[in-house]
Amino acid sequence: MVLKAAYEAGKERLGHASISTPAYHMLSSEQQIAAYNAGLIDYERSNNAKPLANVEGGLIQTENETARYNNILADKVGKYTGLQVVVAK
Question: What SS3 class is residue 71?
Fold first, then answer.
């Protein structure tokens, strides 16, 4: 919890001046910078994420036709992730 304020400030790109929690000031300067930079790195990673290119997936085989909603879920997950899903007993 001590690092949370610095990490969140970095992740939201707020700057060090926006952090005013007592726990933050208990950290050393190096710890403050490291936590803030970790938030910045996660911000960059989340904003630079690239969608999967031309993936095809979905439900390819099922043995249980009565589990309709399971089949729908497996198909949606497969299409979203590009995985080919097999539902077995």
Answer: helix
Residues 78 and 57 sit within 8 Å (Cβ to Cβ): yes
| pLDDT band at 1; cut points 50, 70, 90 | low
Q: Chain-centre distance of CA 5, in angstroms? A: 19
From CA 31, how far away is CA 61, in angstroms rounded?
Answer: 51
pLDDT tens readout for residues 27-42:
888 988 888 888 888 8
Contacts (Cβ under 8 Å, ≥6 apart) of 61: 86, 87, 88
Report field, pTM of the whole predicted structure over 0.90: no
Measured between alpha carbons, how far is residue 62 from residues 11, 28, 74, 79, 83 in Å?
A: 42, 57, 10, 16, 15
Residue 61 predicted with pLDDT over 70:
no
Residue among 83, 58, 55 at smallest CA distance from 72: 58
**87 and 70 Cβ atoms separated by less than 8 Å:** yes
DSSP state of 64: -
